[in-house]
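Dig into these lines:

——
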Amino acid sequence: MTLTINQFASDWRYGMFDMLAKVINGELPHMNADEIHRKMLDLVLGIHSNLKLSDVERNKLNTVWKRLKAWPDAPLAIEKLRIRYTVVPLTVLSWSIGVNCSKHNRISWDGLLSCEFLRQYKPDSGAYIHASELFLDTDPSEIMMCAAHTRDLKSAMNAGFKSAFIYRAGEKSLETMTEEPTVPLNTFDISATDFTDLTNQLLP
């Protein structure tokens, strides 16, 4: 099967979430995102056999997740929001990926929470509840989850969080694999067209 760059990246990225779901369900042993990405890389290359990489090359390629580029409008928005709010990412990615990507994009946070250190992974409601306990005992109702995936937001809302949907062109729902939101946008406390819009709504 001929492999395009876009297909390769898509299969690798979304395949990681499929494998993570199996880890969450107990079908696979516990692994963090770095380990899942590496195992998924082998599976993707096994299907798309036109790309040949050695183990050394695969290990090196797997580090690309630590150099992901942020959305262009995100760093400035985060910097502005931190003036008034405590801004902390809650990610299913590893702490190592979070730290290295933040440094790569020169983004400073007030903290960084990886689900690999929590009792559960998102979208399990326990991940959000445990995260709220680590926010200096902050009540869930005082926390707003900001995300481009409606599944993430719905799960956070079920845990008592407020919610802000941020539209990102080309970002697919993990449920439908389309760009269409899976629920009406008025479901959320805030619906923003981009990070600048989100900042303007939160910092009137």
Q: What stands out?
A: The longest strand covers residues 162-166.
